[in-house]
Amino acid sequence: MLNQQMSIMPKKNFYITTPIYYPSGKPHMGHAYSSIIADIFARFKRLDGFNVLFLTGTDEHGLKMQREAEKKSKDIKLFCDELSSKFKSLTKTLNLSNDDFIRTTEKRHYNSVLNLWSLLENSKDIYLSKYKGWYSVSDEAYYDEDEIETKNNIKYSKNSGSKVEWVEEESFFFKLSSWQDKLLKLYDENPKFILPETRKNEVVQFVKKGLKDLSISRTSFSWGIPVPKNSKHVIYVWLDALTNYLSALNFPNIDDKKYKTYWPANVHIIGKDILRFHAIYWPAFLMAANIPVPNRVYGHGWILSDQKKMSKSLGNILDPIDIIKNFGTDQLRYYLTKEVSLGNDGNISLDSLKDCINNDLANNYGNLCQRVFSFINKNCSSKIPTFFKFGSDDKKLTFEIIDQLPKLRLLMDNQDLNLYIKQVIKFSFNANKYFNDQAPWKLKSTDPDKMNTILYNILNQIKSISILFSPIIPESTSKVLKALGVENKNRTTEYIEDFKNLKSGNKIDKLDILFQKIEND
């Protein structure tokens, strides 16, 4: 059954998701990071010829939302509308390419959740009992005794630092304990189901310690999806929230084109703090309902500010929207993905942001584009030159990227984003070096054919580097590709493979400075 559940998707379809965000506070850097990472993989797959579905959204049910609305004397649904809209706006601010934005308050989602509940009931994986234990309203999560610590007579989760409270209430339970061996088999047979490896090891060790049955309903609040035929219970927030990945595909209609095209998901991009829900609960729910499990769960680390987790009390919160206003969207996107090693916690600061913008964007890629375009504007009447015979140095540069395309695909398939970026930066560095070493300015009067060949070659390399950089800095690379006359439909890996597709004689547009250098205070 497990092999059937890990069925391979058709080659040209790709489904990627962010977590759906709990919108009780304003969007922060962690939200931005998860979203940008997922967007980069989605954009890369599109330029590599895949049909992509990229999903994000908001998780709006639960006690925390109900209490917040009551505290503010607001209608709960209107309160959710207001908060969710901020996260929807964030997709525009971050220049995300998401195809859908789902909310757990939508009818399509209700239908999916109720159907999944019925499937779990029919499989005899749900029973009614009484829950006694520690619960975090902030995390919407249950914790065992050994996961709790006491500070000043207050109980906290060791994992998240959030307060927990003792709860005793009637509850429906999911027979999680009966899926322990099947989960371990899933992890063993599919070694890349959880990445990075360190996260997989954490999950395997947790499951091996023994799984307890999971409370999947609550009676102490009302803001949620009612349990079928027992409306005093609402469905546990995580069973509700996780189902969004199916709701967006019009589940339970498994004959729907979207579902047939995109399920199982290729990868769920999440923060490490919600790994347990995605790597244990979610596949267990799906296996119990006889639904294929996703191909991968990738748990990235936390974004730290000056080596500490961001918090209001420490005053070290870096607001992504403020950074974008001051430095730019591409600048933030590049910085977060270059500076933070995907999978690990990453420390960020304004000083390192400025250095990154200056060294990598302004001095390297930006400088390459600027100086080449300026030279052609002055010496070739702003037209793409005609190339003649390629020498060994020209060929070496040209085929450097073409020959590396299979490796780049593999890096992105394995979410090795930092190695991908490192390689593309190296291409840009080598192109700058080629331009310096070939010195076309010395050849204008002595060997104009050679000069034109060098210029055509370097423009072609800028084209290829810009296409490869476009998932990360889409706005800036679009300016370069537009100036070169490369249409949207041609911004693909396939277009990189042909090094003669820039049309000699075509006019290239003037290119303004892509990245302003940042002066340190």
Short description:
The chain is an alpha/beta fold.
Please provide a written account of the structure:
The chain is 47% helix and 15% strand. Strand 6 and strand 7 (154-157) form a beta hairpin. It has two domains: 2-300, HUPs (Rossmann fold), CATH 3.40.50.620; 350-496, Isoleucyl-tRNA Synthetase, Domain 1. The strands form five sheets. The chain has a six-stranded parallel sheet, with helices on both faces. The longest helix has 30 residues, at 350-379. The protein has helices at 2-5, 29-47, 63-71, 76-93, 107-122, 180-189, 197-208, 237-242, 244-247, 257-262, 275-288, 320-327, 329-339, 350-379, 392-413, 417-438, 448-469, 474-483, 493-496; strands at residues 13-17, 51-58, 100-103, 126-136, 141-143, 148-151, 154-157, 165-174, 194-195, 214-215, 217-218, 226-227, 230-235, 267-271, 297-300, 303-305, 308-309, 346-348. With 521 residues, it is of the alpha/beta class.
